[in-house]
Design a protein that fits this description.
The complex is a heterodimer of chains A (about 260) and B (about 350).
Chain A lengths: L12 E10 L2 E11 L4 E6 L5 H9 L6 E6 L2 E3 L4 H6 L2 E4 L11 H5 L9 H5 L5 H14 L16 H15 L3 E5 L7 H18 L3 E4 L3 H7 L2 E6 L2 E7 L5 H9 L1 H7 L1
Parallel strand pairs in A: 3-8, 3-9, 6-7, 7-8
Antiparallel strand pairs in A: 1-2, 1-4, 4-5, 9-10
Chain B lengths: L1 H45 L8 H27 L6 H20 L2 H5 L6 H29 L4 H20 L9 H8 L2 E2 L3 E2 H19 L1 H11 L1 H6 L4 H27 L10 H11 L11 H20 L6 H26 L1
The chains are: A alpha/beta (about 260), B mainly alpha (about 350).
GO cellular component, one term (chain B): plasma membrane
Subcellular location (chain B): Cell membrane
Main location (chain B): membrane
Amino acid sequence: MTTGASDPGAYAVRVRGVRKRYGHVEALRGVDLDIAPGEVHALLGDNGAGKSTLVKVLAGAVTPDEGSIEIGGRRHRFTSPRDAQRAGIETVYQDLALAPTLPPDANLFLGREPARPGLLGRLGFVDRKAMREAAGTHLRSLNSKVQDLGAEVGSMSGGQKQAVAVARAAMWGSALIMMDEPTAALGVAQTESVLDLIRRIRDEKGLPVLLISHNLPDVFSVADRVTVLRLGRRVLTAPIGEVTATGLIEAMTGADTLRGAS
Amino acid sequence: MTDLASRPAQAPEAGARRRRAIGAQRLSDATILLLLIGMIAAFSVLTPAGTFLSLSNFESVLLTASQLLILSCGTTFLLIAGGLDLSIGAVTVFSAVVVAKVMGALAGTAAQAADFQYPNLAVAVAAAVGGGLAVGLGWGVLNGVLAVRTRIPPFIATLATGGIVLGLASVWTDGQNVQNVPLPFQTGFGLGKLFGVVPWPIVIAAVVTAVSWVLLAKTRFGLHTYAMGANLEAARRAGIDVGRHMVLLYAGMGALCGLVAIIDVGRFGTASITSHSGDGLAAIAAVVIGGTSLFGGRGRISGTIVGALIPAVLQSGFVIMDVQPFWQNVAVGVVLLVAVYVDQVKIRAQTRA
């Protein structure tokens, strides 16, 4: 069930024994998760399996009752999303969290704007030129479809918005990029370009991506490995080549349930 | 299948829509400036030579607009960030009462004042100016804390504080104007000119406008103001301390009310209880006419300047033409309706994308 690798340093992110209880509900019952450097790791599970709680734990939005998170061999304890960001974990939420009336460069740098050199910088002046150039370079490196750096993000297509949000995560993330259902609202062509963006983050930036998705074709198209959660426990981690869609669905729903129903 | 088939047709459409949305922004900015220029041209033609179009009238229009412009600068920041302050007229009145009372009390005894002798004028002016700014700032902080800490919408919260503040000012003064303002403050400051050329209220309004422009367009503080109005949750997740930022904006608005109160007392030599009740709505009207969105996230100081000049230009033109100046209110109302309609069309163009 677990991966064969035994050297702990081989993983970019190691999650061990994470538990989280909300009142009587145990959302996570001791979950382990290993994410290798430069892999796209899909996280699957039915509603209530604990996916979103696990993502929130990694994003620092939820503090676990037990368990540990190691990044590059160092243990971390996140008490706020800021902690997770400082540790190099960036999250693309389903709502994208973009400012629609601002252009892409301001969105990429929101809250982390480059200051002008010298006194003006200390007075809070933003180096717009540096911001625009860095944003342009970064978007090009991801082969992004966002071309007009002066246009408001709100006027862009769903795919372009997604590309801006993903590019922001890739710009600041140094340990792990997490994406929560990034293709849920997209059409076929736009989904393909987001999947391409995910591959580029892996291949060009060498960053691991944790992809939360319901969409099995997406998972088979882009993931290197897959982990399935069910009822707060990990029930499967395997290279994508060693699983089938049926196998994944059985793992998500519980094979017994399927057999019982048929 | 249908999804794939419709995609090539949609792509250019989205591009056109974006151009239209951005075009609408530039169009409305330019339209409102053209409207102002048109008004000035029309009044210049319709009035006798050397009346409307003269340096002295230009100065008087700017003087009339100066106080509204200062309040409108603060309102621009608030509206862009998704806030709103209806209490600014009341806060201005309250601050003006403080300015007039402190100055009158400290400048000299009543007997000395009767002889226009003010032995402690410097101390009195310094204390009154400091007091006016501090009181305005204080009410602004209260509005900000209410906006951030309670879930009361700012429309209601500041409507309520405005009533409270104006009520307290009236109770304090028995509803009477505060009269005993030292004359030199009026002659030296309110009616005085920098280098004998530019009236002080215009100088102050110009400085406030310039600082607001730079702050909004060039700094991190300005960018964060836009971001909060565009998507508060996104700004919060980006690590911006949105509560602190919002309190700062309301506090700044309050301090600007204090500044306007100082100018008002200087110009008119009295703290008037009744003459500022419409200031809040006038400032919001000027800012929205200038292209700032009521829905947040969008706006510029350049537009606000134009929006704040329109009422003063109309008033001056109507007075010179011997038209009832109340028509100014009618005209501003009509322009406001059009401006908000354009704003909504813009928002619709954007959310459709």
